[in-house]
Amino acid sequence: MRWWRRESGRARLPRGEGPWAWLSAGSVSLSLLLLALLLGLLVSRGLGHFWSADVALVTLQDGRQLAGRAVREAPLPGGSGRERLYRTGNRDLDGAIWDWVALTAIRDVDYPQELVVLERRRWSEFIGRLVALAPEAGPRLEGEAAWSALEERLLELEARREAIRELREQTILPLVRRLEREGESEATQALAMAEARVAELRASLAGASLVLESVSGKRLIQPLEEVVRARRPNAMTAFDKLVAWGQDVWRFLSEGPRAANTAGGVWPAIFGTILMVMLMSLLVTPFGVLAAVYLNEVAHQGRLTRLVRIGVRNLAGVPSIVYGVFGLGVFVYGIGGRLDSWFFEASLPSPTFGTGGLLWASLTLALLTLPVVIVATEEGLARIPHRQREGALALGATRLEMLTRVVLPMATPAMLTGVILAVARAAGEVAPLMLVGVAKLAPQVPVDGDFPFLHLERKFMHLGYHIFDAAFHGGDVQAAMPLIYATALLLVLVILMLNLTAIFLRHHLRSRHGTLSSY
After folding, report:
1. Which portions of this protein are annotated as coiled-coil regions (predicted)?
2. Which residues contact 237 (CB under 8 A, 6 or more apart)?
3. What is the pTM of this model?
4. Is 207 left (phi over 0), alpha (psi -120 to 50) or beta?
C-alpha cells in the first residue's frame, strides 16, 4: 500500500481526514489521561487515608524519640538533603501533630507492636503506649489485660453513644418541635423523661480513664468517654487492616463531621447534595421544557424570538455568584420575608423562610441551570423532522395532541441531556449556595418523621462547600487534606451516579423512539 502519491512531481498525503482526525484523537486521549490521573490522585490520597498505616518509632542521632506515621518527603531548604514529615499526634502534649525530621538526623526506625493509636473527640490522635486502664470501680488493669478491657469498653461506649443519638433524633427533637407548635403537657412530660434517660446514659459514659505515655516519656490521663477508637496498627495483619479500612470508609459515609470538619464523616453533606440536586431537577425540568416548546413550537419565529434565544444563551454564561445574589435578594429576603410576615409572624424576629434554606438553594440553582435545559431541549425539538408533525396533523390530531404524543416523546432524550448537564453543573456549585442556604455544620438532615417530613426551610450541608470550608477555614489544613481528597472523590461519584441514572433513562427512551437514535 502506498502511503503517499506523487502528483505533478510533488508528494501528497493520502486523501481522507488529514491531520485533523489525529489531532482530535490525540486531544481526546490527553483529556482521558488527565481524567484518569485526577481520579487516581483522589483515590490514592482519599481512600488511602483510611488505611491503618504502620506507626514508626524514630530514634534520632541526639537520642530523642518520636512516634508517628510517615506522610511525605521533601528536599531541605538549600538542597542539602531531604526531610520527612511525620504525623505524631499528641497535640495536647506537644502542641502540634506534625514533625519534620531530616533523614540524616535519623539513627534508627523501628515498628514496635505495643504502640497504640487512639482517635479522640478532642486534641486529634494520641500515639504512644497504653500504661493502664482505670475503670470506675475495680482494680487498675495494666499490660495486655488493659488492652483487652479497653476494646470491650469501647464497644459498650459506642452502643451507648448510638442510643443517645437515637434518643436525640427520634424522640427529643420531635417532642421539642411539638412543644413549639402545640405546647401539650404530655409532650413536656415525655421530653423530661427522654432528657433524663440521656443524662443517665451520659453519666454511664463518664468515670473510666486511661493512663497513657508518649514515646518521649510524657504521661497523660485520658477520660475514656473522649476516646472513639483504639488500634495497634503494627500488630494488625493485612486482613485486619482491610477490615478496619472498610469500617472507616463506612463511618466516613454514614456519620456526621466533627472537629471543625477535619474528622468524622460526611453523611449530612451527601444527603443534602443529592436532595438539593433532585429538587433542583424537579423544578428546572418542567419550566425549561415549557420554555423550549414555546420558543420552538408556538412562538412566531421573528426578531423578538431570536433576541430571546440570544438572551437565554447569554444567561448560561453569567457567573454563578450573580445568581446567588439574586436568590438572596428575591427568594430569601423578598419572598421568604413576605411568607414570614404572612404565616410565621409569631416566630419573628427569628425567620422561618426569610433565611437561607433548602428551598431557596434549589430555586437558585434551578435558575442557574434553566438556560442549559432550554437550549438542549430546543435543539432536540429542532432535530425532529417536520414530517412527523405533518403526519400527526394529517391523521386528525390536534396541535396539542401532536405536541404531547409525538414531539415531546421524541424529544425526551434531548430533555434528559439538558438535565444531565444541569445536574453536573449544579452539584459542583458552591458560590451561590453560600448565600442562600448551605451551612458549615448541619448534622440533622432536612428529612425526618415530623410533619411535613421534608423541611424545605432548613439549612443543609453540601459536599462542595464542605470541601471549601475544610480546605480554607480549617485550623489545620494539612490534617484535613486527606478528608478533602476523599470528599472530592465522593462528590465526583455522586455526580457520576446521578448522571448515569439519567443516561440509562435516556438510552431507554432512545431505544423506544428509534427515530432519534442517530441524534
Report:
1. 147-204
2. none
3. 0.80
4. left
